[in-house]
Amino acid sequence: MAASPSTIRFSLTANRLTGHDDTPYKAVVRSYKTIGNEEMIADMAAMNASVSRQEILVVLDLMKAVIRKYLLSGFNVNTDLFIARVTVTGGFSSEEEDYDPTRHAARVRLVPAADLKKGVARDARFEKTRADEPSPKPDSVYDFATLSRNATVSSGHVAEVKGLYLDCDPGDEAQGVFFVDKTNAGRKADVVHKSSGTSVLFRIPRLAPGAYSLIVKRGFGREVREGRLKVEISVN
Fold this sequence. Notes:
This protein folds into two domains: 35-121, Irregular (HU Protein, Chain A); 137-235, Distorted Sandwich (Coagulation Factor XIII, Chain A, domain 1). The chain has three helices and 17 strands. It has helices at residues 37-47, 53-72, 114-123, and strands spanning 8-14, 25-29, 77-78, 82-89, 105-112, 126-128, 137-143, 148-149, 152-153, 158-164, 176-180, 186-188, 192-195, 199-203, 210-220, 223-228, 233-235.
């Protein structure tokens, strides 16, 4: 049986809604992970050894088919897990207008069942954690001269860093792509051809041959944060 966390983790973040001066922070639940069908089925089989995985799959498939059948018949469905109903989106210009699939659409609305809500509210135990502040996360650098990734780059040639939170302001001397040597001396890539949240296309500065750490620095409000590529880069 898969291990289940005994607590729900949450952190605090600024509450930006007006009218909350007395409570300037709100809780944000931090999920451990997303559980899919396979893990749920494995847990269900472990809870009842007399029921096989295949039998659980059959029951789940049947339940899904039956719920779909009822919803397509215009029924509301009330289960121990949720209440489901179909709604129609898109406006109608007159009482005589009929459903038009080019302007209207069917939507399934789900509301957790009362027993599920009450049970979670009753049994929930919480653990406060620190919020993970966003920072640049460079995952790889590709050198177009050597056609290598996370290995060797060439001074004066074009390279591309990929990752997350990389959209730095190249006009700010404190932000950008930096190469730092063993003495912690850093050199910024002054020529940036393209910058987005997931990619920076830049020209590698003139560097002495050797090993370097690649660091991306980006502003978050008034604060500049940095992220370091996990591997050292060799400059030739």
